[in-house]
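hey
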C-alpha cells in the first residue's frame, strides 16, 4: 500500500468541505473594496476616501478559553472572541476595522467544527462592517492531538493621521469612563480553568460554560458613536494584565489614572472566582477586566455627553498628577 498525505494524517477533502461550508457566508462580509474572493493566494482591499490614511493592525488569539469551548462542544462564540480581541485593540487608536484574516490550526480537521468557529468570525465581522477576506487552516498531526484546535486572527483598520488617538492629549482633570465587559472576554482562562474545573456545574441557573463562553464584547459601534460627537483623549482595551496593566499604557508621564474601585461593577462570576480561589483583589485587578472591557478618557466638559451616548457607560475615576500612572483607591 502506497503512502498518501491522508495516511500521514492530513485529509485535504475535509479542508475542501470547510471552504464549501463557509464560502458564501464569508462573501456576505465583503464590500466593493474587496477585489478578490476566498481562495486566492493573497487578499486585496482597495482604500479610498481618505486624505492621509494610516493603517492600524492588531493580532491576537483566544488563549485557553478555547479549551472551555472544545470541552463543552460549543464553538460559535470563539470566532467572535478571535475577531473582538483583534478589532478592539485597533479601535483604541480611533481606527475603523477594514478587514480580518484568521488562522485555524488543529490535529485532525473536522469541517463542521471549523465552519462553526469561522461562522462566529463572520457574524462579528458583519456586525462591525468589516470584511473577512482570507485565512488559513492548518492540519498538523503530531503537533496537535485529534480534537485540539488553536485560533488566531489579524485585523487591519484605518484612521486619518490627524485623528489618531494615542493618549498624548490626556491631561489632569480628564474623566475616566468605563464601558462594561460581557464577562471574562478572552483573558485569564488558565486561572479560570484551575478554579472552575467542572464547566458543567450550575451557576446562576445555567451550566457554567455558558457564562464562561459569553463572547467578548465588540466596542466598534459604541466607540465610533462617541467619536462622531466627542474628541476622546485616550482609549484603553482591558485585556491581559487587567486594569492595572492596560490603563497605564495610554497615560503620559507625570500623570496618574486614579480609579475609584468602589464604582467598578464587578460581575458575579468574577466575585465567585475570587472567593472560591482565595485570590487577592489586586491579583484580580491585574489579571481580569473586572467588568470593565474598555475605558475612555475625556475632557471633563464632555464626560456627560459620553455617558448619554453609551447607555451602560459609567465614570470610574479621573486623571491626577503623579508618577505611578495608575492608582486604585
Amino acid at each position: 500500500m502506497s503512502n498518501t498525505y491522508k495516511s500521514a494524517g492530513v485529509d485535504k477533502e475535509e479542508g475542501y468541505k470547510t471552504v464549501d461550508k463557509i464560502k458564501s457566508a464569508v462573501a456576505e462580509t465583503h464590500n466593493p473594496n474587496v477585489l478578490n474572493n476566498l481562495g486566492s493566494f493573497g487578499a486585496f482591499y482597495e482604500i479610498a476616501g481618505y486624505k492621509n490614511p494610516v493603517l492600524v493592525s492588531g493580532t491576537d488569539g483566544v488563549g485557553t478559553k478555547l479549551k472551555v469551548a472544545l470541552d463543552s462542544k460549543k464553538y460559535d462564540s470563539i470566532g467572535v472572541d478571535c475577531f473582538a480581541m483583534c478589532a478592539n485593540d485597533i479601535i483604541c487608536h480611533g481606527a475603523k476595522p477594514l478587514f480580518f484574516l484568521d488562522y485555524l490550526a488543529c490535529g485532525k480537521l473536522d469541517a463542521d467544527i471549523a465552519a462553526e468557529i469561522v461562522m462566529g468570525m463572520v457574524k462579528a465581522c458583519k456586525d462591525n462592517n468589516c470584511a473577512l477576506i482570507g485565512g488559513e487552516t492548518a492540519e498538523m498531526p503530531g503537533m496537535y492531538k485529534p480534537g485540539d484546535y488553536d485560533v488566531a486572527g489579524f485585523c487591519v483598520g484605518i484612521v486619518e493621521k490627524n485623528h489618531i488617538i494615542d493618549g498624548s492629549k490626556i491631561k489632569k482633570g480628564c474623566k475616566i469612563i468605563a464601558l462594561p465587559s460581557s464577562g471574562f472576554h478572552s483573558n485569564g482562562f488558565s486561572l479560570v480553568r484551575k478554579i472552575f474545573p467542572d464547566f458543567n456545574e450550575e451557576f446562576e441557573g445555567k451550566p457554567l460554560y455558558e457564562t464562561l463562553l459569553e463572547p467578548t464584547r465588540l466596542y466598534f459601534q459604541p466607540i465610533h458613536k462617541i467619536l462622531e460627537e466627542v474628541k476622546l483623549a485616550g482609549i484603553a482595551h482591558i485585556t491581559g494584565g487587567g486594569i492595572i496593566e492596560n490603563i497605564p499604557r495610554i497615560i503620559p508621564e507625570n500623570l496618574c489614572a486614579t480609579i475609584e474601585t468602589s464604582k467598578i461593577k464587578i460581575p458575579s462570576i468574577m466575585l465567585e472566582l475570587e472567593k472560591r480561589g482565595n485570590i487577592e483583589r489586586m491579583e484580580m485587578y491585574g489579571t481580569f477586566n473586572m467588568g470593565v472591557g474598555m475605558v475612555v478618557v475625556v475632557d471633563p466638559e464632555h464626560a456627560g455627553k459620553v455617558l448619554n451616548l453609551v447607555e451602560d457607560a459609567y465614570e470610574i475615576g479621573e486623571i491626577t498628577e503623579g508618577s505611578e500612572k495608575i492608582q486604585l483607591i
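The mean pLDDT is 93. The chain is about 35% helix and 25% strand.
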